[in-house]
Automatic annotation (TrEMBL):
Cofactor: FAD
Cystine bridges: 56-61
Cofactor info, note text: Binds 1 FAD per subunit.
GO MF terms held by the record: dihydrolipoyl dehydrogenase (NADH) activity; flavin adenine dinucleotide binding
Transmembrane intervals: none
Organism (species): Sanguibacter keddieii (strain ATCC 51767 / DSM 10542 / NCFB 3025 / ST-74)
Entry-linked Pfam families: Pyr_redox_2, Pyr_redox_dim
UniProt-listed PANTHER family: DIHYDROLIPOYL DEHYDROGENASE, MITOCHONDRIAL (PTHR22912:SF151), DISULFIDE OXIDOREDUCTASE (PTHR22912)
Domain FAD/NAD(P)-binding: 19-337
Listed name of the protein: Pyruvate/2-oxoglutarate dehydrogenase complex, dihydrolipoamide dehydrogenase component
């Protein structure tokens, strides 16, 4: 147990406290690492400078999906005669924002703090900085410094921060990041978004639903560049149908603020254009939050991702005490994959330092002590309309990895369950098959509610289920999942 009985962030004087394990960052990822690390009796503390629950709970996953859901429900109803006739209006922005607020608990983390207390995890509020091996200083908002020491391990779960490109005038324009977009109090009349990744397309969808005139500016040739090309094409078409002005292969060369709004000077194909919007959202990427956590004192470089092995142990630090999980590693920037990595790290720490290694040191691939899925089976859902759900490798990614592949696709709208779900149901399913082993290494679904198809594909990829065995997983009729039968038929079964 700790050497101090006062673990409160309200202490008015400097304190020195020792725990077996210290987790820096009390977001969803850090909470999972802390919970798992304490399962063999180790004492655990988490350090948090902002709200317990982190980005996902207050500014990312939960509020963004709460903003997106009403528009999706409305569109689903409009696609079913009998229900469509009852739709006589559009979304109520005030009620959409109020429902969003309920998911963030009004940006109050009391319930999350109560969960930590119930789990026996100490909370130290403030900004942590490494001062040496297994030692940290935590500075609270009032300037109070707490000196923390970990007997065994420190786990860094500080997440990531937005990147603002070096465009002249952009920083001075005080643009929104994803936080400002998802916590908006008043819906702007117009919004320009820089970036065609997940945040860009999701926020373009959400604000278009709320009645905002949205302009999306993307440097690349397509949206969602890390997905299969057909996914980005489908989302671009849908955004245009929603009234979004989509500019692909377009650079923002400068930004100025005028009385009538923010002016973006853009360049595309040798021509220039000025776009004007009330607000500007920059969604051009994120970087690991390692700038000011003291990495230099342990021989690492501030600002760099923390490179880890599959046990989530940070490479280049002697002694085997520093672990990292989530966005800060640069491996996979999703909450669910970060929580998966956190469970791995927590289990490793609990086993390694909690009195029984349980074979952890010699753990093979696919044991619970190795984050193997990060390399081959990462699932992701983009809650655009249509939704994009994918797992594993794209066709090009599989080829780049050296696989010999065949690709099989099927029109989702031709599946009986899709016809029942909605009139005019459109979408596409695709699997990437390693022909040498006869297993699926990647799958992508594009269409309404296709997120619910993804876990079956994830199991097939993780389990490396041979196609001739997968043939015996009979999909229920009439459901959209019947597409699995059609995909396997396309593969020759």
């Amino acid at each position: 147990m700790s050497t101090s009985t006062d673990h409160s962030s309200d202490s008015s004087s400097a304190a020195e406290t020792t725990y077996d394990v210290i987790v820096v960052g009390a977001g969803a990822v850090g909470e999972n690492a802390a919970d798992r690390a304490g399962r063999t009796g180790l004492s655990v503390a988490v350090v948090e400078a902002e709200l317990v629950g982190g980005e996902c709970s207050y500014w990312a996953c939960m509020p963004s999906k709460a903003l997106l859901r009403p528009g999706a429900v409305l569109e689903a109803a409009r696609a079913v005669p009998g229900a469509a006739e009852m739709i006589t209006g559009t979304l109520d922005p005030a009620k959409v924002l109020a429902r969003r607020d309920s998911f963030t608990s009004g940006w109050d983390d009391s319930s999350q703090v109560d969960w930590l207390d119930g789990a026996g995890i100490a909370l130290v509020r403030g900004r942590a900085r490494l001062t040496g091996p297994k030692t940290l200083d935590v500075t609270a908002d009032d300037g109070t410094v707490t000196h923390l020491t970990a007997r065994h391990a420190v786990v860094v779960a500080t997440g990531s921060v937005p990147v603002v490109p070096p465009v002249p005038g952009l920083a001075e324009a005080n643009p929104w990041g994803s936080r400002e977009a998802t916590s908006v109090k008043e819906v702007p009349a117009s919004l320009a978004i820089m970036g065609g990744g997940v945040v860009g397309v999701e926020m373009a969808t959400a604000f278009a639903d709320l009645g905002t005139k949205v302009t999306l500016v993307v440097r690349g040739e397509r949206l969602l560049a890390s997905n299969e090309p057909f996914a980005g094409e489908a989302v671009a078409d849908s955004l245009r149908d929603l009234g979004v002005d989509v500019h692909l292969s377009t650079d923002v060369t400068s930004v100025e603020v005028h009385d009538d709004g923010t002016h973006l000077v853009t360049s595309s194909g040798g021509s220039t254009q000025t776009l004007v919007a009330e607000r500007l959202l920059v969604a051009t990427g994120r970087k690991p939050a390692t700038d000011d956590i003291g990495l230099d004192v342990v021989g690492l470089t501030a600002g760099d991702p923390l490179t880890v092995d599959d046990a989530m142990l940070v490479e280049g630090v002697e002694g085997g005490w520093l672990f990292a999980v989530g966005d800060v590693t640069g491996r996979v920037a999703t909450t669910h994959q970060g929580k998966y990595d956190a469970r791995v790290a927590g289990d490793v720490v609990a086993a390694r330092f909690g009195g029984s290694s349980e074979g952890e040191l010699d753990a093979p691939d696919w044991s619970r002590f190795r984050a193997t899925a990060d390399h081959a089976a990462v699932p992701q859902v983009v809650f655009s309309r249509p939704e994009v759900a994918s797992v594993g490798l794209t066709e090009q990614g599989a080829k780049d990895a050296g696989y010999q592949v065949d690709v099989f696709s099927y029109d989702l709208g031709s599946v009986a369950g899709a016809a029942v779900a909605a009139d005019g149901f459109t979408g596409k399913a695709q699997i990437v098959v390693d022909t040498d082993r006869g297993v699926i290494v990647g799958a992508t679904f594009v269409g309404p509610e296709v997120a619910e198809l993804l876990h079956a594909a994830t199991i097939a990829v993780v389990g490396e289920v041979p196609l001739d065995r997968l043939w015996h997983a009979v999909p229920s009729y009439p459901t959209v999942s019947e597409v699995w039968l059609r995909l396997l038929e396309a593969a020759g079964l």
